[in-house]
Design goal:
Shape: globular
Radius of gyration: 13 Å
Number of helices: 3
Largest sheet: none
Order of helices and strands: HHH
Number of domains: 1
Distance between the termini: 17 Å
Number of strands: 0
Length: about 60
């Protein structure tokens, strides 16, 4: 598991438990998140809804999408 996977799991856990996410991503993670946001903003129709993301994460199929 890489740093980004761990960070994503921490965010999902915090969100589901209603806790604020207090971790600040390190520079590499921040850069990756900014890259992903830019890609989403360029083509939002290619993204997934939060409900789809949660379902994919919970059943483990997100790695095959």
């Amino acid at each position: 598991m890489n740093k980004l996977d761990t960070f994503e799991e921490d965010i999902l856990d915090a969100y589901e438990n209603g806790a604020p996410v207090s971790k600040k991503p390190v520079h590499d993670l921040q850069t990756e998140l900014e890259k992903r946001l830019a890609a989403f903003e360029a083509k939002p129709e290619e993204g997934y809804s939060w409900e789809e993301v949660k379902a994919l994460l919970k059943d483990g199929s997100w790695r095959t999408v």
